[in-house]
Every structure is written in C-alpha cells, then in structure tokens.
Sequence to fold (466 residues):
Amino acid sequence: MSGDNPAPYLDGIPPDTLRKVQQYLKPFQLSKEKLKEVSARLYKDMLLGLERDPPYDAAVKMLPTFVRATPDRTDRGDFLALDLGGTNLRVIHVRVVEGNPQVLYSESTTITTEIKEGTGEALFDLIAACLGDFLVSRDLNGQTLPLGFTFSFPCEQREIDESILIRWTKGFKCSGVEGRDVVQLLKEAIRRRGDYDIHSVAMVNDTVGTMMSCGYDQRCEIGMIIGTGTNACYMEEIKNMKRVAGEDGQMCINTEWGGFGDDGSLKDIQTEFDVEVDKTSDNRGVHIFEKMISGMYLGEIVRLLLVRLAEDKLLFKGRTSEALRTPFTFETKFISEIEEQDSGLVNTLRILTDLGLEWESVDCAIVRLVCETISSRSANLCAAALATIANRIRTNRGLDHLETTVGVDGTVYREHPKFSMRLQETVCLLAPLCDITFHVTEEASGKGAAMVAAVAQRLAAEPAGQ
Fold:
C-alpha cells in the first residue's frame, strides 16, 4: 500500500538524496492496516449520517435522493435531460431501449457571468428558453416528455421532484433561489413562456446520474465520481434511514463522502501539506477527504512538496521559479502526463521547462516519484472509501459474497494512466468478499438524468403496494 514497486528510474537518484526525499513522502504512504482504519471510520460516519435528522451537522451527510430503484430492461421511451453544473447548460434528448440510454442529440449554452450574478428569474427564463428552442430544433414541440434535471449544487431533496437549493457554489449568485424549490422555479419559467409543457421533472445529483447511466448492468448499485471533486452514492435499505421512515425497499443515498474528515477524524493522516492546502482554500475546514484525493487539489499538493524539496536543496539545486511558487500552477493533469509509461520523461522535461525551472535528470526522477506517491495515496484512499460502501451493501444483505458494479466517472479516474489499476487492486485487498466490476460512463449526467426520469415513470405506473 506504499505505492508501486520500486521503479528503474529511482536508480538515478543518489541513495542519500532518495532517503531524504522519502522522509517527506513517508506520511503519504498508507499501510493496508491504516487504510482499514480509515474504512472503519467512514463506516461509522455513514451510520451517523443515516441516523441524523436533519443531516447538516454530520460530516458524511448520507442524503436521501428519492431514487427508489435502479433501471431494468423494461425501461424505455424518449426523455429530455437538463444538466446545469457550472459554466454550461446542456439540453439532451435521450432514448432508452430496454434499459440502455442513448444520447440522440445535445446542445450546450454558456452561462455568462451576468446570468450567474443576476436574478433567479433570469436564470430559469434562460433555461426554459434553451429547452424550448431545443424542442423546436428537434421537432419535439408537440410531445410532452418526462425531464431529468441534473442540478449539481447543494440541495435538500424532499422528493424526486422537489429539491431545495441550500446554497450556490461555482460562482453562481442568482438572487431569489436559495431556500426555494428548483423544480417549482423551472415550472414557473416554462409557464411564463406558455408555448410548451413538460410531463414531469426528476431531480438528479451528478453522482446518482453516474450510477443510473449504467442501467444496462443490472448489478450496478454504486456510483462514484473522482475528478475535480469526488463523491459516491449507493442503494441503501430504507429501513436504515431515519429521515425516510415507514417505507420498505431501497433508496439511493448520496453519501457526500467528500466531507469525510470534516469532524477531525482524518487528522492523523493529514500531512502538513494537506493542512496548507486546506488553510489556503476558499472553503477552509470542509471537504477534507476531497482535498486529499480529488483533481482540484492533487496538483497543488505536489507543488507544495516540490517547493519544500527545493528549499531543502533536494531539487533543482535549491532554486525554484516564480511559476512554481504560484498556487495551483502545477496542474493535476501534469501528474497524469508525468506518469505516462512511454512519454512520461518527455512530458516531465516539457512541464518543468514551462514552469521556468532548471533541471537535471535526477530532478525529473524525484518529480516523478512525488507524483506517483500523491496519486497512489489518492487511489488508495478512494479504494478504502469504495470498499466501505461495498462491504456495507454485503452486510445489509447478509451475503457471504457480493457481486456488484460501480458506475464511475471523473477525469482523475479516466485520464490518469495508473489510477484505476491502483484503486481496483486496493479495493480487492480491503473488500475481499466483494467482486466489483467497474463501468466507466460517458455522458453520465444526461443519460443518468433520463434514467432517473424513466425509473420514476415506471414506479409511478405500478399499482400501489407492488
């Protein structure tokens, strides 16, 4: 669990230098026993989150999504999907055939700063206008299709079609939206237009969409994102959820596992560099787990380490550059490029040169070692969290052995050359009684939103009590 086996490139680092560098890297190298401890702590926090009502003071919030089933082969039809998560609004036409969603067409509109900082009415009028234009362009205006809405902001979901915005993030500051039902605001904007209608709206978290987009796999009951941020969801027994009392069956839980450690439970594995990243962040003291493993922060952890090693004259002959001393100039994608099997050295030389650094071959080897150490810790911690969920599902069902599938998305998982392999190897060690298959999803937000709408439509059509 301390990273990959010793690599040949390490032979180019003088033994005394390597020993000193390893002293800085050792706190990032977590043993199997320590990862088991982390998993046990997350399991405890998940139980606390399930018991809290309301959940806001829980580190791992375990939010009900009101998605009560996964897709099956009977789900079919045409659906619309909206995806609002940052700089763009996407409108998507999805066709579901025997539980398999296919994107037929999509259009994207940039959300300007003026809209982000304007009124909520202006934002939802724009959404309604984009949806209306899409219906006309696709000759769908005469149809009344169910709509899945991926709205990637912190919300309190009260039903599948009722989601209250808690607070804006990602630069949005639209007035008159926080504390209100997003579905109602969308319906009001559509009514103001008066030229089309929608059948129903199902609200979707992006992690839930990732899971639901794998509807063709009947075993898919976990969704995971490891990209700029990180989160996971899974199917939990409703009887274990205090906030949804008196129901049978299952419901998808949005764990919000990025907040793991916000209560101090990860202090013993936080390094001084993790503490510095948190201290200088816009949301100090929250999303501690996310800051240790996600793409938004991995490059910055590496940068801080490189600066320290240079200050201690273990890198670049003790010299840095203005670029290296500037926060977030070492991008997380650089880690992936440096760890490429064939082009890693060439990429390393280019990146260090672009950062204004004077390097020798030993510097390139040390930089690669730092990158591998940080990305390996990320994969191992992510694996510990995923193993916790898999073990939870197995325990819930009283199974000796669980076979399950994870729908996964995110740039770190998809683009890093070794991340997925490291994660899967560690999961096998931490959840040995679980056989886990991974499906990397594409167009997850659109497909997943459509599948949530499809499942909601199917369940609504079933006789009561079935």
Summary: The mean pLDDT is 92. The first helix runs from residue 15 to 25. DSSP finds 15 helices and 13 strands in the chain. The CA atoms of residues 150 and 204 lie 5 Å apart.
